[in-house]
Amino acid sequence: METETEPYVRLASLRELHQVVAQLATARSMADTLQTIADGAVTALGFELASVNVVRPDGDLLVAAVAGDERAEAALAGRTGSRGSWERRLAMGERWGGLRFIPYTEGWVLDHDDVPQWHTTGPAPRYPDEWHPMDRLFAPMYASDGELLAVLEVDRPRNGRRPGAWGCEALELYASQAAIAISNARLRGNMQRALVRLEREQQALRASEESFRQAFEYAPSGMAIAEVGSDNPGRLIRVNDALCRLLDRPATVLRRYSFADLVHPEDTGVLLRTSAEGGRAELRLARRNGTYVWVNLRNSVVADAADGPQVQLTHVEDIEERKRHELALAHRASHDSLTGLPNSAELRARLADRVCETPPERFGKAAGRPGDPFRGLGTPQGRPYDHHEHVVPPDAPGADGKGLAVLFCDLDGFKSINDRFGHVCGDAVLVEVARRLEEGVRDNDTVARLGGDEFVVLADGLGAADASDLAVRLRNAIIPQMRIEGRVVRVGASFGIGWAACGTSVDDILKSADQRMYIEKRSRSAGRRRAG
Fold first, then answer.
1. Exposed/middle/buried for 498, CB within 10 Å: 0-12, 13-18, 19+?
2. What separation, in Å, do the N-terminal and C-terminal C-alpha atoms of the chain show?
3. Is the pLDDT of residue 298 over 90?
4. Which residues are catalytic?
5. Domains along the sequence of the chain with CATH
6. How far is CA 85 from CA 80, 81, 102, in A?
7. Which pTM value belongs to this model?
8. What are the E-state strand segments in 369-490?
């Protein structure tokens, strides 16, 4: 397996992986889930063929989903392989983290076992990491208790090479999320069958109270019953042990609350938009220690008995792990992997959110004086209700002397540190510079890394003098010496100050600040910019 770290991953690839992981949560049935897993491996992981072998109740593995090749699907789908043959394959494979790889030089011993396969012969590889048609790569998927749920097999990488370090990590991460999706599909199937049974037995609910009580109390995920249409709507009148464990609160305490009392303040609107009957929402609920857990709420309204009061039955599914991985993928896509700062794409997105294409002379009343109640509401073409707050430079006609400052920072002498001490030392300098920049700005300001030794600071509500003072403070924060790997090094910094303005493209805004930075850099003496 290739062990060198792949230094760059296309942002589009990360987004595709994030999208297919998110799609796993939308699959409704077990069959949909398994096919979504196979399709996602082909869509986002760079393979032309993928199959999902799911463990049957008798222990053998069934080819339940195939993606990427119709002929392979016709040949493989619905066939089974014995558990013993699969265990032999997974045991003999090379361990690539949680993956198993069997090279073509060893796979010949498996040619006559009963595992369905789609492989062809081919010439020997032309270079060490070239994929051979007889190579086999498996991603086992396990439940939280270690039970084998399924095996994802992938074949024919589009680039013709065995996956590198990042490709293996992505496949392993995807397999872990797929295992969660399979477990959730099992749970959904069980719960859906229970809910259908409850709906069919509404008229006989009182007679089957004991059956419902056991299904409710011993459900593996949280369940709650709340009042509907009473003097205290939404109050929890019954909860199961799983919900008590999830929220770390005893049942006697939970029965004092409604979900509205427990929801995260930022998710209150999501809860309110969730209809009482058949509604579902993903939101955060509070634990006893003050932390929050991501859950999926599903509501249904049932009658307590024939012609009796209605109650709301809520299924609470723990999705904390999936959300954590989704947020991690989103963060990796929008932030610099070295410094943790927003990257160029995220910076441009934040700027684009603030500026529009309307030039200043067409703002209408938006360019009025501060305090004007209609300021920011005028638009071109006579549309009177545009809630976008137009951005103008502080010296623009009718402006209030404040604006969105764009400070373009380029380090002075950084190349010499890389050349003398190596890139490891240079990376440590960039991390330290990022830390000093973040400490020197306000909480609502943005510090981003464009790449190399270039940084950008977005600071709103500043005048020209304020922006100049900020640039001086940040420069003074950067220039003190740093101790890196036992060495004392120092870099300088040059700043250019530009201003965001509606009617100006993001590229032009950054280009203007960049040009001002180079003017400032050339105006300073070479001695003051020398690092060591």
1. buried
2. 40
3. no
4. 453
5. 11-188 (3.30.450.40), 201-321 (3.30.450.20), 335-355+391-523 (3.30.70.270)
6. 11, 7, 14
7. 0.43
8. 403-412, 446-451, 454-462, 482-484, 487-489
